[in-house]
TrEMBL record:
Lineage: Bacteria, Pseudomonadati, Pseudomonadota, Alphaproteobacteria, Acetobacterales
CDD domains: GT20_TPS
InterPro entries: Glyco_trans_20
SUPFAM superfamilies for this protein: UDP-Glycosyltransferase/glycogen phosphorylase
UniProt protein name: Trehalose-6-phosphate synthase
Family the entry assigns: Belongs to the glycosyltransferase 20 family.
Length: 452
């Protein structure tokens, strides 16, 4: 069996297990479980200059090959272009995109450095699977170095309409780079349609034919077991006791402007103002670990959310009731799984999301005999697999409030029917199925792509 080489901006820490492992590592666990594999990418550390030779560490059949980034390269590649230009553009927020030619040059420089360091490590029959927007040009860099192995690329975030993406300076160049890959994966068919159109617009019809949707999933059975166990654990018991019988609404997101948190907080405020029967009867916990805290837009978002929390609790709280609880530190996955099982409502309202695995985890965590209700943004990629969710436009706080009211008043019979339809989708579109489907395409006998 060919070795699988996984390439990502950030390589998982070899010592991370279970509760501390990152989302990508968890999703790809199945892909590396049955074959020799290597993770390649940034170590997470910075130095005076970007390393040219990777540090190698082997754990059984799994090898980790990592590069430290130079501080200036990190600033240009990661903070500047990847997060300042690409991230907002890919999430349909072109107005927030900040383009700088030096940042773009730094982005391409790091991709070239990755290619130079990775190419000598590759075996003749390796399969190379590159992940996410940080590494659009890597396939083309590898082809220029003579790499002929099959290359796959998967985009974990949305891909917007072609006209929007190519309005970003150098957008067409990045689309052209994707022609170097043999398989180009995205989350949804809408993303696939958009990316195919972008490739066709620049004359890459053959590359457009290699674009397909592979929806990312979770290990539903494993997460359900974790949630059931955590529900009877000490931390969940303490949290349940603190609610004093009140109904729990739960949100779990990274602190990011794509997640629609200000609009969500406003929606909860509207629930308390318009549907006063829920006063004193509901508590909303929002877990939002700080993300990219060194970027100005994220610091501004954090201030805005702090103001919302103060405003909502200041206007609506009673001496014995705090309606909104807000945390910006990370919570271990098993603990969150227990909280999800406890929550009557899962509130997942991103402005735009490639998939959103939190929505699927919430469904998997539920007690089949007494499940909660998922309130979900219609702009999350997970919508297609979750037909029982209450869908909302995340830009309309009143619609969020109305959906929360419906969810909080929903009877058990309807909740069970809705949950069953979603649980079936979560199990069918699992992490195992995602890995299996993408790997089957990558292992195909099609011709090797030629760099644009």
């Amino acid at each position: 069996m060919s070795r699988l080489v996984l390439v990502a901006n950030r390589v998982p820490n070899p010592n991370d297990r279970g509760a501390t492992a990152g989302g990508l590592a968890v999703a790809l666990k199945d892909a590396v479980a049955r074959r020799d594999a290597m993770w390649f990418g940034w170590s997470g550390s910075t130095a005076e200059a970007t390393a040219t030779t990777p540090e190698i560490e082997t754990r059984g059949r799994l090898t980790y090959a990592t590069l430290d980034l130079g501080r200036e390269d990190y600033r240009r590649y990661y903070q500047g272009f990847a997060n300042g230009s690409l991230w907002p553009t890919l999430h349909y927020r072109l107005g927030l995109s900040q383009f700088d030619r030096a940042d773009y040059a730094g982005y391409r420089k790091v991709n070239a450095a990755f290619g130079q360091a990775l190419a000598p490590l590759l075996r003749r029959d390796d399969l190379v699977w590159v992940h996410d927007f940080h590494l659009f040009p890597l396939g083309a860099e590898l082809r220029r170095l003579g790499v002929g192995q099959r290359l796959g690329f998967f985009l974990h975030v949305p891909f917007p309409p072609a006209g929007l993406f190519c309005a970003m300076p150098r957008g067409a160049e990045l689309v052209a780079d994707l022609a170097a890959y043999d398989v180009i994966g995205v989350q949804t068919e809408e993303d696939a349609v958009n990316l195919r159109a972008a490739l066709v617009a620049i004359g890459q019809k053959s590359a457009a034919a290699r674009v397909a949707a592979f929806p990312v999933g979770i290990d539903a059975e494993g997460f359900a077991r974790t949630a059931a166990k955590a529900a009877s654990g000490i931390e969940t018991a303490r949290f349940r006791q603190s609610l004093v019988g009140r109904t729990l609404v739960l949100g779990v997101d990274r602190l990011d402007y794509t997640k629609g948190l200000p609009q969500r907080f406003c929606g909860f405020a509207q629930l308390l103002a318009r549907f006063q029967q829920h006063r004193q009867r509901v508590t909303y916990l929002q877990v939002a670990p700080v993300s990219r805290g060194d970027v100005a837009q994220y610091r501004s978002l954090r201030r805005e959310l702090d103001e919302w929390v103060g405003r909502i609790n200041g206007q609506h709280a009673d001496p014995d009731w705090m309606p909104l609880r807000y945390m910006t530190r990370a919570v271990a996955r098993p603990t969150l799984a227990g909280f999800m099982r406890l929550a009557r409502v899962g509130l997942v309202t991103p402005l735009r999301d490639g998939m959103n695995l939190v929505a699927k985890e919430y469904v998997a965590a539920q007690d089949p005999a007494d499940p909660g209700v998922l309130v979900l943004s219609r702009f999350a990629g997970a919508v297609a697999q979750l037909p029982g969710a209450l869908l909302v436009n995340p830009l309309d706080p009143d619609e969020i409030a109305e959906a929360l009211d419906t969810a909080l008043d929903m009877g058990r019979e309807e909740r069970i029917l809705r949950w069953r339809s979603m649980e079936a989708g979560v199990r069918e579109h699992s992490a195992h199925a995602w890995c299996q489907d993408f790997m089957a395409a990558l292992e195909g006998d099609g011709p090797t792509a030629i760099a644009a």
